[in-house]
Amino acid sequence: MASEAHSIAKHIASTVKQLRTQHGWSLDRTAGETGVSKAMLGQIERGESSPTVSTLWKIASGFRVSFSTLFDSQKPVQGELRRDSRESVWGDDSAGMQARLIFPYDPLLGFEMFMIELAPGAISESAPHAEGVVEHIVVVEGEMELRIDDRWQTLKVGEGLRFFADRPHAMRNATATRLRFHDVIHYLPGAASSA
Q: What is the pLDDT of residues 79-108, one digit of tens each?
């Protein structure tokens, strides 16, 4: 698991630097586009920092790429794609969140899929994602409190919600047990590209 996290961290570092180079952006410009400080971006590119899931979302939204671009270097293939349950895990971050990539972004299908785990008492605040990003949440274990804009609602096992994620939202585990949920992220045309 540690070597997997190290491999993902290296991929994140090189991908952020590559995206910045492709866009021709300075660290100042990248900070402005992503909402992530210039110092933090530099640390990420040098592999000196393990960014939170929230920070990675800001970076992906700023560059208008899929979230899984930062996790996974596999190119989409036509037909079947089988994933190992141990692949592409990122976390636990400071918010108590762990993200496991199930299916990476495929531009043909326009979606990616994660299994997310929130530790007891943890909350993950998300800045608005790029316009045209839709999240589909389905709780598989525990109970989630989900805030969209300023409205909180509770989702129990087997319940789901689809919402436009280009507005502030947060996920909270207010219980004493872990929370696990599937997060299918759909990118409407033009909302993301693959790096």
A: 555 555 555 555 555 568 888 888 888 888
SS (H, E, C) 69-112: HHCCCCCCCCCCCCCCCCCCEECCCCCCEEEEEEEEEECCCCEE
Q: Give the pair of three-digit tokens for residue 177.
A: 């047990």
Q: Are 126 and 53 in contact (CB under 8 A)?
A: no
Contact present, 122 and 99 (Cβ < 8 Å):
no
Q: How far is CA 143 from CA 73, 130, 176, 182, in A?
A: 32, 27, 10, 13
Q: 169 near 115, Cβ under 8 Å?
A: no
